[in-house]
Every structure is written in C-alpha cells, then in structure tokens.
Design brief:
A four-stranded antiparallel beta sheet has the order 2-3-1-4, covered by helices on one side. The protein is elongated, with a radius of gyration of 20 Å. Strand 2 and strand 3 form a beta hairpin. The chain is an alpha+beta fold.
C-alpha cells in the first residue's frame, strides 16, 4: 500500500507561493488609514453619479473617481467622516495606495452638469 504524502509534499512550495500571492495584498486591507484620503468602494452597479451624490450626502469632498465607476477617492479628517461615508452607502473604506494604486483612476474626471441633475443640456 502506498501513501500520497510524497505527492502532497511535492506541491507544498506551489501551494505556499499561491497563498502568499493571494493573502499578501489582503493584509494591506487591514492596516489603518493614513493620510487624508480614502478610497470609498460603493455597491457594484453604482455609477460615478451615484458615488458623487453619496459623497455629497455624507458631506465629504470627492477628490476624483476611482478606476471603477463605484469607487471614489474622498477627503476625510476624522472617524466621523468615515462613518458618514458608510451611512451614505460605502461598503469598504481603504487606503487608496493599498493595492498599488489600483483603486485610483488614471486621470481626474468630472461629470457634466447634465448628469448631475439627470436632465439633458
């Protein structure tokens, strides 16, 4: 009768490398926020307009939109500001640089006034 321990030990380095690749970026999510900006991640399906309106509802300044339409980079100055973003619909609040800047859009952008009011110009 043979055992499979030899086969499992052959894959151990591959398994450890895979876990390191997946888990290392996740460790950054647990670190406290530093600086005065936060990447506010809102529910999937939210548009830039929704993110802008939620930021305004929370009384926070939207600095720029993120790499995805449901991500906004927002200024904050206190824990109460973060709580107001959560109350406005933010699911996650992360350091914008945690994932190597992947949450930040390539360029600053702005919505035309017609999209803010929902009417055509």
């Amino acid at each position: 009768m043979t055992t499979n321990t030899g086969n499992i030990s052959a894959f151990a380095p591959l398994i450890l490398i895979g876990l390191a690749v997946v888990c290392t970026p996740l460790l950054g999510l647990a670190e406290p926020l530093r600086g005065d900006q936060v990447a506010a991640i809102f529910p999937p399906g939210w548009s830039e307009r929704d993110v802008l309106l939620a930021s305004a509802q929370a009384g926070q300044n939207l600095v720029r939109f993120g790499a995805l339409p449901n991500v906004g980079i927002v200024e904050f100055s206190s824990q109460a500001d973060l709580e107001s973003l959560r109350a406005a619909g933010a699911l996650l609040l992360l350091d914008p640089q945690v994932l190597g800047g992947c949450l930040i859009g390539a360029e600053a952008s702005a919505l035309p006034p017609s999209q803010l009011t929902g009417t055509a110009s």
